[in-house]
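Data availability (excerpt). The following record was deposited with the supplementary files.
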Amino acid sequence: RDPTTGHFLPPANGAANGFANNVGNLRFSNANWEGKGPPQNGFETFATPQQGVNAAFQNLGAYVQANPNITVAQAIAKWAPPTENNTELYIRQIAEGTGINPAMPLGEVMKDPAVAAQLLDAITRKEKGGLPQGVNADTFMAATGGAPSPQIAQGGGEATAPPVQLAQYQPPQQTPVPQQAFRPQTMQDVI
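Predicted structure:
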């Protein structure tokens, strides 16, 4: 466990800071992820970092499919449940690090590749304590349907161009979302 957050950390094995390329620390499931390998200590493994990021994005999409009204905070509480994590801290750190309002519907975040990439970046940094080797802004943009750098798009591996700059979310004018800081008082405020 991380002594600061209380979050369970997988043992490091050199690949994506633990469990081969599983940047979101996804638990083993019956999901048919592309590049899925054998489970390791109850966690998924993936052949490449990109496939691990793709699975994390697809996992968020599955939350929206199951509950179209799920908020970012509710999705984080599902991703990092309070039985295993300091979920309130996790939500606050993601919100402060991205500027994404945790009360915002996750489906709205998922519609904008740059904002969804920003959320994936923040989740990965939280789960792995930083960006694992082989993971950068282009990896997240490719997973969300955004445009990676030309070298990645042509199958050239790691990007040598500067990473894509991730945009801050700006809510639509017709449906403003309050942007004040979200400070849950209890887990009931989150879920």
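Summary of structural features: The radius of gyration is 16 Å.
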